[in-house]
Amino acid sequence: KRTVMTSVYGVTFIGAKNQIREKIEEKLEEQGHDIYLLDREIHLASGYLAKITMEVIGELFSGARQTMNWLTTCARLLSAEGQPVAWITPIGIPVVQPYRQKKAFSVVTMFQSIRLVTRSDHLPIHKGRQASAFPPNYVHSLDSAHMMLTALEMEKRNLDFTAVHDSFWTHAGNIDEMNEILRDSFVDLYDGDVLEDLRESWKLRYPDIELPDLPERGDLDIKDVKDSTYFFQ
Question: What is the model's pTM?
Fold first, then answer.
């Protein structure tokens, strides 16, 4: 479950393997097994299950995988020009990824020499981190936009609301209305083409970079979300 959930955030094979290994070790310890004696078997099993899981995710969620690949490719093109990946969320909040190279230096005292690392906006960007971190960061920015749109509508209706990431809370008597609001806010957010808007903003900012075509759109009617019982729990 954890690997499937994090697939839309760009989980790698190594990440999936570690997630599955943690769960296997947890189950074995609950049954009284010594996981250190079973280290080789756990290593092989977690690798096998991670491989199968990643293959199935690629087959069942091909659209999501294509979108993640598109986002990563675009981030690589931007960072190759020495630019940090930046975008504006659908609610108008600018985002700039902070990942840059580290610079080490030493502080010598009478007793010892201490090696420290500094981070500065003047240092070159970390191209690998800029590319690998962009898909999950972009998805998180869309999630936060959805949360803000829901919060603003709740405030308009004078309803109490609080949230942590994707966990939305209100009083029990207002749950049904909140469910309606969060679905309407989601449809309003994605009724347009957020990827096309993102691509157009980059084309204006980086006219010399040849961005790839958008991934092919599926046939989901986003308005079906309004009738989905388990869309948000």
Answer: 0.80
